[in-house]
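Worked Example 4.2. Consider the chain below.
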Amino acid sequence: MSRYALVGAISGELASYGGRVLVHDSQAELEYLIPGGRVVTLPSHIPPEQTLPIAQHPEMAAVRFPLQRGDFR
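Applying the procedure from the previous section yields the following structure tokens:
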């Protein structure tokens, strides 16, 4: 299963929180959540323990996964 990450527009680095790379298992959902964001396949050398699912980011607490697009208006 592929994992996807966001690349910072200015830094060019993978977006992270608390030192862990933010990831999601659906490229389409990540692109929907972050319009205009650059989504890439997570490099295979980054181990799971160095990642954090975007669903666990504190600012995503109100978002249900898998996304229900009707929740967004």
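The radius of gyration is 12 Å. The CA atoms of residues 54 and 64 lie 11 Å apart. Compare this with Example 4.1 before moving on.
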